[in-house]
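Posting for a labmate who doesn't have an account.
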Amino acid sequence: MIRKLSLLAAGACLGAAVTVVTGTGQLPGLGTAIAASADTYRQLNLFGDVFERIRADYVEEPDEAALVESAINGMLTSLDPHSSYMSPKSFQDMQVQTRGEFGGLGIEVTMEEGAVKVVTPIDETPAARAGVMAGDLIVGLDGEQVQGMTLQQAVEKMRGPVNTPITLQIQRAGSDKQIEIKVVRDVIRIQSVRSRVEGDVGYVRVTQFTEQTFEGLKTAVDKIRKDVGDDTLKGFVIDLRNNPGGLLDQAIAVSDAFLDKGEIVSTRGRHENETRRYSARSGDLTGGKPIIVLVNGGSASASEIVGGALQDHRRATIVGTRSFGKGSVQTIIPLGANGAIRLTTARYYTPSGTSIQAKGITPDIEVLQELPEELKDQVTETKGEASLRGHLNAEDGAEKEESGSQAYVPPDPKDDKQLNYAYDLLRGLQANSAFPPSQAAAPIPN
């Protein structure tokens, strides 16, 4: 029995299976189940035969443990881009990361066509400071080709002792030549919430959903309200751009912080009895102040849960570009001393019942950034989930792969067109029919 499940990216809960017995005492579909089981055992025998042949006849004596691990990982990665095996060390590293501190470069990555794709660099980390960008393809590590490595092997190679360098060979869209970026490893301490006062507006940046995110958000909002005063405060900008996601319970708590009632998100697995619904409790941290949420092509998973919940309830206006479109749920299932598996177990749905898998959250107001001259010849967009090989299909088939979504955020806030547009909306210097959001829209089904 699994006593605890660590919920990553979009999180999940496992539902118990229920067997229905017919009046005749026969289990429905029993003959089919037996046939499938017999075929499965034949395939497992095939695996055993191949394994023994490799052990006996390979030109060099193979590492048997590595063979089994590769077979397991291959089985999982064949399902979708987000299912994988974690060795005991990788599992331990993941647990440390969700607590908000880990060693490495500071990038969120996935695998795409044999290369490591950067989903987003994490704010104020070695990778971000060195110029690694969302959408970059890492094709080499210190001169060694990534082609042929598993994602886990590539991640392990990027980790290492603090203050040691690694050179990334990067293929950037729009550039014919590979780019080399030297990054010095460091301890990555994630401060998942940063905030500041911009005159009469509160700015809150959420970089990841770790175990400390809700408490960090609460502290930030309370401080802004105290420093500015509710009579002066125009509202809040919640910046989720290039936020790759994190823990489900934290995404729910952050959404709940701004909602008084209603469903936040639902997760639906393979079987009907596995559906889970999560609802808001009364109370709004901001006291009902206007909210604008910023998203872009690097906003994924838990970020999309928050954006979708606040958008559907008309609690916030979404500004920026379309989000990444990762609407699947990964459950971390521990395997005792043998590590764990990350398995896609469900899709999640926004309060209106919409799956954003391979589609993303469409902003209420699209605002594109102005690119500096040195980036105008390069593509600063990410195609998102729909571009990943083996991704779960969108339920209605309406995938958003045909065009990219911008993920660039200027380092200087003065040049940040999306952020400054949000400030102007809150101060009444810009007008748009999407702000404030209309509360007269059709009610959301519970």
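Reply:
Got it, the structure tokens are right above this. The chain is about 25% helix and 25% strand.
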